[in-house]
Amino acid sequence: MTEEVSADKKPLDLSGEMPLIEGVETDEEILLSRDLTGAFIKAVKAFRFYPPDNPTLKGLRDQLLKKFQFFLNKYPSFVIQIGEYDLSYKGKVLYENRDMKTSLAFFLYKDGLREIRFVKHLEEWEVQGIIDILKQSEQINPLEDDMVTIMWEKNFSPFHLCRTAWKLILMLTVTVCEGPS
């Protein structure tokens, strides 16, 4: 028996709600930050692997720059919190790697970086400069330099570094923020 649709029945309207699916992120800002972080990690890995004249690298850098610009046109900043083995945005883990030899998060964390803040007007040379620093991470002599110093010396204008300095005598953690706020 077929059911007839009468004129007084209204179709179900689901336009006002987005269903929450357990384990699946629905917040657009978090989704975009996850996509941007993925593109950033992919670009850093590719720049470490491919020779500098490989055309794939230009495409990855351009794609990363566009993702940064898109995100920063929608939101005032992109703040990556750096944990010992993870990178997060607004408390949501976007990247995790517990292998100390290959983890970008661990590499930044061990040099004292706890946060990187990207803001509007990020330029192509700055994106390339960050990638260049991170691709050379294995060649940094820890007795002469650290990641914070190398990034600071590049004079990146539109991002903000926060590092933690340990005062062992007082067992107190002090966060030192440098750059524009």
Oligomeric state of shown chains: single chain
Strand content: 15-25%
Uncertain stretches of 5 or more adjacent residues: 9-22, 165-176
User: What is the domain tally?
Assistant: 1
**Mean pLDDT value:** 74
Largest sheet: 6 strands, antiparallel
Q: What form results from the Cα inertia axes?
A: globular
The tally of beta strands, per DSSP, is 6
Number of helical segments with 4 or more residues? 5
What Rg, in angstroms, do the CA atoms define? 21 Å
- Residues in helix, %: 25-40%
Strand order of the largest sheet: 3-2-1-4-5-6
Question: Given the helix and strand composition, which structural class is it?
Answer: alpha+beta
Q: What is the straight-line distance between the termini?
A: 68 Å
